[in-house]
Amino acid sequence: MKLSRFRERLFGGDAGGVMRGMLTLALGTGMARLIGLATIPLLTRIYSPADYGVLSVYSALVAIVAPVLTLRYILAVPLPRTDAMAANLMALCGLLMAATTVLAALLMWAVGERVLGWMSMEVLAPWRWLIVLGALTLAAYEGMSLWATRCRAYGIISRTKVIQSAMGEATKLVLGLVGLKPFGLLLGNLVEQSGGLSSYVLRFRDDLAANGRRIRRRYLLRLARHYRGFPTFRLPSQFLLVFSTQAPAMFAAALYGASATGQLGLALMALAIPGSLIGQSVGQAFYGEIARLKKGSEVRIKALAYSVQKKLFLVGLPITLAIVLLGEPLFRIVFGREWAEAGAYASVLAPFVLLQLTSAPLVQILNVYNAQSAFLAINVFRAAGLVGIYYTCRSLALPAQEFVYMLSAFLFVFYLLITFYILHVVRDAAARSTPPDSGRGAAQ
Fold it and tell me: What burial class does residue 290 get, using C-beta atoms within 10 Å of its C-beta: 0-12 exposed, 13-18 middle, 19+ buried?
C-alpha cells in the first residue's frame, strides 16, 4: 500500500509524463553510471590524484569550448513547430561547427600552452589537440541528443549513454594498465563523449534525410534571426555557466596544484552522479514536454514545475544526507585511503548539490519563455562570485579546505536564489495567463 502511494506521488499528477520520460532516461543513465561506479575503484588505484587533476582541467576546457561551436543555436532544436524547420536549424548548427572548430584549433595552437601554464598544467600541453576534438564530439552529441529529445525518443538517448560509458571506461582501464598515464583518462573521456553518435545517426538518418531536402538558405537566415537571442544572450550565458561549473577545478589547479585538484575533481565527479542520473534526465524530459505545449499553457508549466520540484526533493534529500554523514569513510572504503580527502570535500559540498539537482529542470523554462537575458544575468552573478572566492583565497593564502567551504556556501545560496527566482517567473506568467482549457484560452 505504501509502495503504491509512493508510486502515485512520483508518477501521478501533472508531472507524471515528465517523470515517466525521466525514468526512461534515468534507467539508461543509471546503467551507464553503474558501469562508471564499478570502474572508479579500479581507476583510482591505477591513476594518481595528479592524473585526475589533469583530467579535471581537460574536461573543464572541453566543456568551455564545446558550447561556442554552435553559438547555442542547438538549444533551439526542440522548439520549431515543424521537423523541416528543426532540420534547417540542425544544418545551421553544422555549418557553425565547421567554421568555429577550425578557429578553435588555431587558437589552441597559438595560445594553448600559455593557458595551460597559467593553470600549472603544462603536462597537458602535448595533448591539447584532444581539447578541440573533444569539444567537437561533445557538441555533435548534444545536437543529436536534442533532436532525440524533440522526438521524445528517450529510449535511444538511454542506450547511447550506456554505450558511451562502456566504451569510455574500457578505454581508461586498458590504457591505464599498459601505463599510458594520464593519456588513458583523457582518451577515455573523449571516447565517452563520442560514443553513441553512430546509434543516433542510424536511428534518425531517414528523418534527417527526408527533412534535409527541405533545407533552404532563406530558412537558415530566417532561423538565425528568429533565434538570435541564443547567440546574443545564451552563448555568453552558457560560457559563464560552463566556466562556473568548471571553475572549481581550474581555480584549485591554479591555487593548490594537481594533487588537490584531483581530490576535488573526484569529489565533484562522485557528487555529479545523482545530478546526471536524476537532474539531467528530468531536465531533458521536462524540456521535451514543455517545448511542445501550445502558447497560453503557462498554468500547465507552473503545475509541472512545482510538481517536479517536490518530487526531486523527495528523491534527492536522502542521498544528500547520506553523503554529508558518511562521505569520508565511504570514499576511503570505495576508492582507497589516499582519496579520504575527496570524501571530506564531498561531505561539505553535498548540500549545494541537492539544490543544483532540484533547480536543473527549472532552468529549461527560461528557454521556452525566451528569457535569455535573465539567464545571462544569473550566470554573470555566479561567475563573479566564484572569481571573488578565487581572489580571496589567493590573496589570503587560504588552504584548500577553506576554499571548499567557501565554494559550498556560495553555491548553496546561489541555487536557492535561482530556485526562488524561476518559481516567481512561472507564478507571474501563470497569473497573467488564462488557463488553456477555458473558453477564452480556447479562443486564443
Answer: buried
Cα–Cα distance measured from residue 325 to residue 235, given in angstroms and rounded to the nearest whole number: 38
Closest residue by Cα to residue 227 from 362, 64, 74? 74
Q: Where are the domains of the chain?
A: 2-433
Within a 10 A sphere around the Cβ of 218, how many other Cβ atoms? 8
What DSSP character marks residue 196?
T
Residue 5 predicted with pLDDT over 70: no
Distance CA 20, CA 142 (A): 22
Q: Which residue has the cell 590573496?
A: 395
Amino acid 227 reads Y
Residue corresponding to grid cell 570502474: 39
Long-range CB contacts for residues 366-372, cutoff 8 Å, separation at least 24: 366/422, 366/425, 367/75, 367/76, 367/79, 367/287, 367/291, 368/79, 368/287, 368/290, 368/291, 368/293, 368/301, 369/425, 369/429, 370/229, 371/425, 372/229, 372/230, 372/232, 372/233, 372/234, 372/237
Per-residue pLDDT tens digits for 25-65: 667 766 777 787 788 888 888 988 888 888 888 888 888 88
Q: Which amino acid is at 71?
A: L
Instruction: Please give the full DSSP string across 75-136, using - where no structure is assigned.
Output: GGTT-SSSHHHHHHHHHHHHHHHHHHHHHHHHHHHHHHHHHHHHTT-GGGGGGTHHHHHHHH
Other beta carbons less than 10 A from residue 369's beta carbon: 16
Question: pTM of the full predicted structure?
Answer: 0.66
What whole-number distance in Å separates Cα of residue 187 and Cα of residue 170? 11
